[in-house]
Fold:
Amino acid sequence: MKAAIYKKYGSPDVVQITELSKPVPADDEILIRMYFSTVNRTDTGFRSAEYFISRFWSGLFVPKYQVLGCEFAGIVESTGSNSSSFKVGDAVFGFNDQRFGGHAEYMLAKETDAMAKIPEGISLETAAAIAEGAHYALGNIRASGIQKGQTALVYGATGAIGSAAVQLLKYFGVRVVAVGNTKNIELIRNMGADVVIDYQKEDFTQWKEKYHLVFDAVGKSYFGACRPLLENNGVYISTELGKNGENVWRAVWGKITGGKRILFPIPESKKSDMEFLAARVADGSFSPVIDKTYVLDDIKEAHQYVGSGQKTGNVLIKIR
Ligand SMILES: NC(=O)c1ccc[n+]([C@@H]2O[C@H](COP(=O)([O-])OP(=O)(O)OC[C@H]3O[C@@H](n4cnc5c(N)ncnc54)[C@H](OP(=O)(O)O)[C@@H]3O)[C@@H](O)[C@H]2O)c1
Structure:
């Protein structure tokens, strides 16, 4: 089968197209014929190992699993004798940041993995972009404890995480103030944001409104600047570690002090979250934003583009 592999950490140039043997499912595994995957910031983060800490999961010196692609959408080709939740021919999607594997014509999964059936009427193309950004967004929203009727500010509303956060917060009945680039104002409004701030014209940290949650989905702000925007007991969450890892140690400190504080939730990949997200796509409350589609042969360019931090929503890889 055709696959994109990386044998060492580094720039997009470490990614090569090659032929691998077609995997055979063990008793507790499922073989998926891949149609679409994405290149996302999880893939590029593991590929570059820019944060050394990622190597504790992916391999200290060289990658343990050479095929990236944590998001996938495909058709079940065969199942092991102990797998009963999915049957041959089922259309499935999911997220796997342990073994990855979506950048290949076939991948293996376990039925207990974070995956679900694609709802009726939803294309494989759309399904491939459901999981990565949205599962981070969902985990952070839940951790913040925000309630219906409260207000959240989402900075970086056009990333995979930010665009999912805006839509999911609206689903939970939260009032959303979203910050984005001039060219994307209409897109952010269409996602349901109540107020849109154009960061090229205004500095959101100067707004007088107070929020229960300030969610920096692009990791470009810092707690000191956003603290005045928080209500008493309001929380600040960022997708980045912050200067000298301050978002992590301040989160530990905030647990002791209470009041306005940073949270740094550890992301989880859960099957139940995939089922929740599938239901949101089916009822129309969440629609993944898709920027560009590359074919597998051009995957290096996709890594380059995603690594620029400029993508709008998600970047698809068409496998077949
Ligand atoms: N290390 C990991 O494993 C990992 C995994 C996932 C995510 N993350 C982090 O999570 C963050 C978000 O990732 P993502 O995939 O959702 O999105 P992304 O690829 O980082 O895209 C960011 C979006 O934010 C916008 N943006 C850029 N500069 C901005 C600014 N100064 N103010 C507001 N918006 C700005 C960009 O559009 P415009 O340029 O048009 O504004 C783009 O649409 C990143 O910081 C990423 O590193 C890390």
The two ends are 11 Å apart (CA to CA). DSSP finds ten helices and 15 strands in the chain. Residues 2-130+288-318 form a domain with the Quinone Oxidoreductase; Chain A, domain 1 fold (CATH 3.90.180.10). The chain has a mean pLDDT of 96.
